[in-house]
């Protein structure tokens, strides 16, 4: 029964959209990468991380080295998500590719109380291409182009979306501010009606403060997230502490969200390899989310 409830929780915005006009494709709102997840989804102002370009593609101008990343996200119950990404310059143009595949397995089909008639898996996928450029007065601008697929039982649809972002470093790069508008696009019809994309607006700022005598550095983050169709909005706050560039401890709060408002995580650094883990408990008895990410930076 819990699996049915969880599945409906994630799928309700799709299944009910045919009558209620709600947004669907909730997987587009899932965290990208363990570091972002631990830090209250404030990737809009997290530089030097290829998965952050899903929040703000303008950050690409600040990435000086090629990166690759893989991530596994254990969401609610058996719901899983895998992602892979890479960034590189091509003819002097910064580019990034990112792909995400999310599966909700064994959703039960019933028409009467009793045993299930059958089960099916729901599949969601997107592939994004990102680029950025210096616009004016030290302000970077970027764009993501996303191909999106959703498959529910015997129905499927495809669509495209765009993300737009701006970022500006200040105070000798100690302060970074960012703005993004995401998931602007449309889908083909899913049986009778097209699923609406979960468009959102994000604002954020991060400030880096170092205690060199103690080999400690702190990253303070704050922001605001607004989802247009559902009119849900939330402030977001996060803190990252790094010791000797070897280990990081992270925590974040999104007090405006009902089901997932706290997160925490750790990161370990060895040479050019980063390993990150995030923990996100859900309310309403929906379980706990775990994300692990591995990132390699080429030198």
Structure description:
The protein is mostly beta strands and 299 residues long. It has one domain: Outer membrane protein transport protein (OMPP1/FadL/TodX) (Porin, Beta Barrel). Helices cover 8% and strands 58% of the residues. The protein is built from three helices and 16 strands. The strands form two sheets. A 14-stranded antiparallel β-barrel has the order 1-2-3-4-5-6-7-10-11-12-13-14-15-16. It has a two-stranded antiparallel sheet with strand order 8-9. A hairpin with a 5-residue loop joins β1 and β2. The longest helix has 14 residues. The chain starts with a helix and ends with a strand. The N terminus is likely disordered.
Task: Give short descriptive properties of this protein.
14-stranded antiparallel barrel; 8% helix; mainly beta; 299 residues; two-stranded antiparallel ribbon; Porin
Low-confidence segments, given as residue ranges, are 1-22
Fraction of residues in H or I helices? under 10%
Question: Secondary-structure element order, as H and E?
Answer: HHHEEEEEEEEEEEEEEEE
Task: Give the spatial strand order of the biggest sheet.
Answer: 1-2-3-4-5-6-7-10-11-12-13-14-15-16
- Per DSSP, what share of the residues sits in E-state strands of 2 or more residues? over 45%
Number of domains: 1
Mean pLDDT: 87
Supply the helix-strand structural class. Answer: mainly beta
Number of strands: 16
For the record, the CATH class is Mainly Beta
The CATH H-level homologous superfamily? Outer membrane protein transport protein (OMPP1/FadL/TodX)
Q: What overall form do the CA principal axes indicate?
A: globular
Number of helices: 3
CATH fold type? Porin
Largest sheet geometry: 14 strands, antiparallel, barrel
């Amino acid at each position: 029964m819990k699996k049915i409830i969880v599945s409906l929780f994630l799928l309700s915005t799709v299944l009910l959209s045919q009558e209620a006009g709600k947004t669907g494709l909730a997987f587009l709102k899932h965290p990208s990468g363990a570091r972002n997840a631990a830090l209250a989804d404030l990737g809009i102002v997290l530089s030097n991380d290829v998965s952050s370009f899903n929040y703000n593609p303008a950050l690409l101008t600040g990435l000086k080295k090629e990166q690759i990343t893989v991530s596994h996200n254990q969401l609610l119950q058996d719901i899983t998500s895998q992602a892979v990404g890479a960034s590189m310059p091509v003819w002097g143009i910064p580019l990034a590719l990112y792909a995400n595949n999310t599966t909700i397995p064994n959703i039960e089909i019933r028409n009467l109380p009793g045993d299930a008639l059958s089960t099916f898996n729901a599949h969601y996928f997107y592939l994004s291409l990102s680029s950025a450029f210096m616009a004016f007065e030290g302000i970077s601008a970027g764009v993501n182009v996303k191909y999106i697929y959703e498959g529910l039982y015997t129905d499927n649809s495809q669509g495209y979306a765009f993300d737009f972002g701006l970022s500006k470093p200040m105070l000798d790069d100690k302060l970074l501010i960012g703005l993004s508008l995401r998931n602007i696009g449309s889908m083909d019809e899913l049986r009778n009606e097209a699923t609406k994309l979960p468009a959102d607006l994000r604002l954020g700022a991060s400030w880096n403060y170092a205690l060199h005598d103690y080999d400690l550095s702190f990253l303070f983050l704050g922001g605001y997230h607004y989802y247009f169709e559902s009119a849900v909005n939330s402030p977001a706050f996060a803190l990252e502490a790094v010791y000797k560039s070897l280990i990081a401890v992270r925590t974040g709060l999104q007090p405006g969200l009902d089901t997932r408002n706290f997160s925490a995580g750790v990161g370990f650094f060895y040479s050019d390899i980063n390993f990150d883990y995030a923990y996100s408990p859900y309310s309403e008895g929906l379980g706990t989310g775990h994300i692990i990410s591995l990132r390699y930076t080429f030198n």
